[in-house]
Records
---
Amino acid sequence: MSHKSWDGTLSSTEFYVAACAFAKQWRKFNPSLPQWSWVTCPKRPWISHDNQVGYLSVENVILPRLSEEADQKGDIIEKEECVSEYEDEVVDTAVVVHNGGPGVHRYDFHAVYSASYRVPVLYFRAYCDGKLTLYSCLQLMLYFATLYGQPLLLDEIEKDIPVHSAELLIKSKWTFMTQEEHPELNRPWYTLHPCGTSEWMKLLLSTDASAAQSGIPVEKYMISWFSVVGQVFGLKLPFEILNLVGADTIVLLVSVNYGFVTFLVVCIWHLNISLTFADRY
Amino acid sequence: MVMDYKRGGTDAQQYVWGGAIPLQIHLHDSEVTTLPPPPPALILAPRLGYLPLLVPQIKPFFSSSLPPGVDTVWFEYRGLPLKWYIPTGALFDLLCAEPERPWNLTIHFRGYPGNMLPPCEGEDSVKWSFINALKEAAYIINGNCKNIMNMSQSDQAELWRSVLNGQLEAYLRVSSKLKLDIVGDDFAFKLNSTTSHSRQSTTDLDTTGTIRTGRIPVRLYIRTIDEDIDGLEDAPIVDSWEKISYINRPVEVHNEGKCFTLYDAIKTLLPELFKDEPSVDSNTCEAEVKGGQNSNEGSSKSTEERGEAQTERAGLPSDSAEIKLIRIQGIEPQLEIPFGWVVNNLMNPEYYLHICIYVKVLEPITI
């Protein structure tokens, strides 16, 4: 992939490489968390017999229970600290993290390659007490919608950016959760719509200084991707893993991980610039 | 799509848009509370439509018989809950090996299988699913969804209404604004330059029947048959969606001047099923196209016969599987037909071509 012309997408083979690299990086920096693994799809006579047909999966991720008080600004810092502890740790803050007792919400996350959009797509499901619960997904969506979602963002952003950009935000639908059939599992899963993915991936990785020499590094793709989509769930990558992607990208990724509003403003600012110079981007 | 809204589309498009499947809808036993039980509802379901859109027509037949409660409608064929986001025609082509007329379906108003199907709240859900598919197709064709995102409210409403009501002319009028060109205008224009009953000259088709380099939205449904059967009517019923493989992958076309045929398209999607095949001679393309044109306007039976012959030739067994049938919009097109023609004429309004393939598996597959 050449640096200047890269459009933020990758092939299915590149996705496989990126996914395996990400699983390794995650294991190295988050050994105590549930691990990502590649799930190979069952053999079919029309699929060539290689392991690349499949998806990346992490299961039984425990997200903190969300309390009503956490939407006040003062609590957000504490919440950010404890969301990175997934299992077996109880943190004494305003938001209590359960360590596996009853009523805990567990999540499965799958990163599945989309041949149409040529990017990974996030699919997820929630369980409570071993039973599949759609209700907790809805709760989660509602909670994050108020914190990170469009209504709040629009209020904040509209004050600072031109009207045209606000319209762009509405139209582009940055965070967009729906329920769809999982491409491999014949069951309905929740998913984040992929149609903006290539644009913000291009934004994140095109600024990478090392990319100018050797093309976009596939090994960094999933770190950047997960930084953004994980954000929707309050899942933040530890700083050490972000270090892997290089100094320039870090600026953007840090803003992604620790201030989604900042990230969006930056994105919109970039897009504004692209739009004035080109008919298409 | 063809930019020929003045004439209301090509012959084939008119056939497809006018195509409908007669349904005989039975209320599920568990929901019958009256004696005698209500008779089944008989309705015509447009091929290009979706089952939930028929509910307003169907419900009056059964409303007096339903138990109290909130409606959560779903359809079922021989025990298989039907995926409401798959167009009715594709469902029929896939699940009825031997076309069943009328197609007997069961309707449920209660007990939605939420662990199997995403929720459906009537027309809005179907519309959302349709627009989403259209966006995905636009992304595949153009590399971005801007044309869809930038549609005015009135255009979007008009587009949806034309699909809802099966109005090809209105559809072509609005969809032409989307600038989703798969085949070059040149090809489209020549194909429509004559009246509906004259024969096309092959010279119009052969030189310009080329598809642009790029990606074409295709949805492939592969039904596996693991028993030895004499005819399609013996095919075991599909009792689980595990027996169907769904492949949502665009066909990549590299226009090298040779005619890119339907055969070529399927081969690029399922190369493993064509391993023993020599490559198709592109000179046959021109002669076969005329045959393909004729058979489309003729009876469906002759098309099926020809289609079967072609399929047998193409689906030479690989190690473990062979193609028994390729069905698009209820017909079995000859595989030598230029893919551009197939796409232009047989695609659904969301710009996807839905292809049903029956594959005979020679080894049992573990599910």
---
Amino acid sequence: MSFLLSRPFASEESLIMVLPRFSQLGARFLKESGIVSFIGMVRYMYLEVEMVSYTDMTLWITVTFVDKDGEERVIQVPIGISMLEAAHENDIELEEDPADEENDMLDLAFGLTETSRLGCQVIAKPELDGMRLALPAATRNFAVDGFVPKPH
Amino acid sequence: MATAKQLSVLRRALPASRLLSTAAASAAFLSVEDAAEDVISMKGVRISGRPLYLDMQATTPVDPRVLDAMLPFYLSRFGNPHSRTHLYGWESDAAVEAARCQVAALVGANPKEIFFTSGATESNNISVKGVMHFYRDKKRHVVTTQTEHKCVLDSCRHLQQEGFEVTYLPVRPDGLVDLDRLATAIRPDTGLVSVMAVNNEIGVVQPLKDIGCICKEKGVPFHTDAAQALGKIPIDVEKMGIGLMSLSGHKIYGPKGVGALYLRRRPRIRVEPQMSGGGQERGIRSGTVPTPLVVGMGAACEIATKEMDYDGRRIAALQERLLNGIRSRLDGVVINGSVEHRYPGNLNLSFAYVEGESLLMGLKEVAVSSGSACTSASLEPSYVLRALGVDEDMAHTSIRFGIGRFTTEAEIDRAIELTVKQVEKLREMSPLYEMVKEGIDIKSIQWAQH
């Protein structure tokens, strides 16, 4: 899923990087397409993000950040590195503290860590260039038999 | 059923007004003369009638008002609160949420910060192990005291096995923790400070507000085991800077088998759950929430909110009465723990020159507890008294009197009688006491080796 830029962004509009609900099917899609870039024109979407981790270490995600001036930056990101390490390495300012509602949703996520955030709450900013994300090993659903729901 | 049969046999032997619980009935052996005289014979001891209950720190009777609140949820509104599709589930869930609000109101918390567990032991486990496991990458150190409850100390020892470091702070002879030592013990990698609010053995109340201040400055979560404090001393989680708190139902005239955990939301403190499952209680504690027990705990908390002041004053007066009654007739009575910073319902006394186990044997008509080895499952004498610096012989003679909402003045007077009589009798027989009376210093005696 990718949305193309149709016009330059006004400075007040915020850009949201939205990670959709992935299934392993989605992962394969990403592997093939090689690009994950989501620039939404909407203000915000409150999605509960369910993510599946890729154990294949050769899989990379390209994350594109677009700043308020419309400048695109495409970054190749290897999977398995935590955001905090990236912040420390690249001197990136982390997003402001999660609000109560975000924390409430995070409480219910599998594989929660100290630095977990909801993907829909991480807003693209110039300072976040170089951000790297680690995805949890499973979702809230009990698909221990490996069942993968069709993407919708 | 075997027990029902035994019970019916016993019922015929007993007058109708005396009903024993099934467990007691099957365990007790009653002869015909015993039944006629109202004597209970159990574990080789014969006593006339049931003992006076002065052991409120061990457990408390359920307040009849609490039982009233609980019964409908056993008999007619018995739904599972997590059933989302029918009335039984909805009403059960509504009752659980109402109880959550009642518990939260007693401690000044938001209802979203209260999670129901099976008791304070489970809440302590979740607090200590859960917090440290969640932050295990950054935080490797825990600070606690030597007088904590066994569940906290055992959780800390378990963490030590896993490679964490734990500092067990000593306490002053009056049982209070030294705030300077606490402040210096906190390190950058300290993940938790755990100090109990009211000690179960000696009744000492720790300076929660000061400890909370120190922890807030240093940015360390402050956990307190408030099982004995809930409903007895005013607790305000905001003013006291408390991050996690363990609560118990059966210490405040509620049912046994239920407790709660307070977990701060701002700043959010996270724990790794100790019970995995369907994600009930926001994933913190999976498992069906026991509606009747939780409703009981809520009702008990609501009653405590209203009656804490009155109970406090009444119990303080009863404690005065007990202490004066004993002290006016006996010397060599030592109060273990601070006299000023103490919850009045807990009075732990040591009687000098008296052998502890014989004192207990003589006090069978009063249900009390002691710090001696014979009352501990591990045969270890009280580590709390040892932390206070109490000598082993004094620790052995310690008796803990627990006064509660339903204790009457007559019970206190009778307890004084029995205690004084027993202590006098034992001192009469004691050669040590004779020597002290003659002015010999016991500590200077060289005992002969056999």
